[in-house]
Each structure stands twice: as structure tokens, then as C-alpha cells.
Amino acid sequence: VGPGLLLMAGSFAAFRLLNRGLERLVPPPPSARRNRWKWRNIWTSLAHSALPSTRSPSPRRFYLYPELHKDLVGTQPPGARSLVAVSVGYFLEDFVDMLCNQKFHQSWELLFHHSVVIVCFGIAVLLHQYMGFAFVALLVEINSIFLHLRQILLMADLVHTTCYRLTSIVNLGTYVVFRITTLAWMTRWLLLNRQQVPLAAYTVGMVGMAIMMPMNIILFYRLLRSDFFK
User: Fold this and answer.
1) Which residues form the TLC domain (predicted)?
2) What is the mean pLDDT of residues 55-67?
3) How far is CA 201 from CA 60, 128, 204, in A?
């Protein structure tokens, strides 16, 4: 068993344990007690988002690894493989958690999203390639911090507070910068560097981007409508 698989398995187990213990660490408020598993699920997701956000290629780190601009296939920034493997473990845990606790018609979009991420990130970890591509994709998790925090405030019935209003504004701003822009840049890189990427990997990457971009644009519209155009 390779170190990548061990890291993914260890990450899955760690996030599973965290999920089980979160209700003691962060007790749900009365408004969230009717949906305890969701409360635990969101806090687990927030913990994962905070982890790669400290190591992902922020604008400053992007300049530290200028090779990421040119080569997302062979470039492997320090710690990238471990970080991506840990993320695969989290997405597997979240997939299982939703599958066991939520009706399929309520979670199919996220299950589909997680499936794409698990396949793409798993290929990068197991093949020791495309690590730069997966590493840049983790920029999305910077926005996920505010996306999950917004959900926590909603569940805690704090929607009419200044904290919620500020969170929703920062959430939309980081959504455009770190989610939509990142995915658009990755799609452009794939199109411009078609010759560098084998056909199978190129197909997986383009299909992944073709799925992710519409999903994220639709979610952005839903957030905008919910928080600003009610």
C-alpha cells in the first residue's frame, strides 16, 4: 500500500472521528437540534476548508511557485501531495456521511461534485502527476470557509445579524475570486496546454471543469438571490 493511499485512509478515519465528536465540541443551538447530523457535517466541512486554506497557493504563494503558471502536470510544490491526499479522505468521508444521513434527491448535486473531485484528486495522488492542477484547485477552499460559516449562522438562526450580513458579502466576494476565477483559469490552462496532457487525463480534466463551472455558477446565483434579492 502506497503512502498516498495510507494518507487518504488516515484522513477518512480522522474526519470520521472528528464528525462523531463535534457535537460535544460545538453543541448545536436549539434551532439546529432537529438536524444534528447536518450541524456536525458543516463543522467537519469547515475544519477541512481551514486546513488546505493555510497551505493552498494563495496569491503570495503563487508567486513563490512561478512554475505553477506554466506546468500544472509535473510541478509538485512541497507538501502538495499530502494535502491533496488528505482532501480526498475528507471528500470520501463527506460522501459517505451524506449518503447515510440525507435523502438522495437532497444531496445528489454534492454527491456528484464529490465524485468528480475524488476521481480527479485521486488520480493526482496515485499517479504522482497533475499535482499542481489539484493544488491550485484547493484555492476554492478559501471561499468554502465563508460558505460553511454562512450555513452555520443560518442553522443557528442568526440570519438577521451583522455577522451574517458581513459573512454573506465576504462569501460572495471570495466566491468570485477563489472559486469561479480559479476554475476559469484552470479551464483556460487546459485548453492552451492541450499538447502537454495525455488524452485520457485531458478528457477527465475537461469533463470535470465542464461539470464544476455550471454547478458553481448556479450556486452563486442561488446565494445572490437568497442573501441580496429576497
Assistant:
1) 34-230
2) 56
3) 29, 13, 5
